[in-house]
Amino acid sequence: MSTESTNQRSQESTTDRTASDTIFESLESDSIDHESPEQIVDLLELQVAEFRDRELKAQAELENFRKRLLRDTEQQLKYAVVPFVRELLEVVDNLNRATDAATASGSTDSLVSGVKLVQSQLATVLGKHDCRPIVSIGQTFNPYHHQAISQQSSTEFPAGIVMYETSVGYILHDRVIRPSMVIVSTGPPP
Q1: String of b and e for 152-168 (b: at least 16 CB within 10 Å)?
Q2: Are 125 and 87 in contact (CB under 8 A)?
Q3: According to the 3-state scheme, what is the secondary structure of 73-86?
Q4: Is residue 184 within 8 Å of 151, Cβ to Cβ?
Q5: Whole-angstrom Cα distance, residue 182 to residue 27?
């Protein structure tokens, strides 16, 4: 093979050459004496060492990328609730103001109205983060949304219907965070 065709091939090749292309080009070049197997072996050993070095560097870069991605993901998960907590702190501040105002005035009416305002603000904050209460009273008992703590007979509610809620349950997006604690009707007394 002539030097001219080898140069032409080198100019046309891109940086995306495979390892076998590089080896064959080196073997075909006129700079190597084809009579000397030692030179070919030396060249191949150098190329193998170069490819091993590239492989190690690529593995190290991949490992560093994986560690960085894992660290970033952990940080995001750790601080994902920051906006929610900031809004809840405003609710806590208003609750403190309501109790301070009621203590200063000595009247329970201002405390009740202040707490109702804070309760409304808290419901708004939860709603903004797609956390909503589970509607239970008057609904058919659902074991995915309700936890029955008792059963009672009732003339007002048919059997299997939630008649009383001792603790409100909540759903975040589409997942039950806390089921409602309920008392279920067994129907009219016998």
Answers
A1: eebeebeeebbbbbeee
A2: yes
A3: HHHHHHCCCHHHHH
A4: yes
A5: 82
User: Could you state, in chain order, the average pLDDT of each consecutive group of 10 residues for the chain (190 residues)?
Assistant: 46 48 56 68 90 95 95 88 77 77 74 81 85 92 94 92 91 88 91
Looking at residue 5, its pLDDT comes to 46
Nearest-5° Cα angle at 129, 95 to 164? 70
Cα–Cα nearest to 118, from 130, 135, 101, 132: 101
* Cβ contact 28:3 at 8 Å: no
What residues does 172 pair with on adjacent strands?
Answer: 131, 175
- How many whole angstroms from its chain centre is CA 54? 34
Confidence at residue 47, expressed as pLDDT on a 0 to 100 scale? 92
pLDDT of amino acid 12: 45
Q: Return all residues near 186 (Cβ < 8 A) that are at least 6 apart.
A: 151, 152, 153, 154, 159
Give the single-character DSSP code of 12. Answer: H
Scored b (16 or more CB within 10 A) or e, 95-106 reads beebeeebeeee
Closest CA to 141 of 184, 181, 170, 180: 184
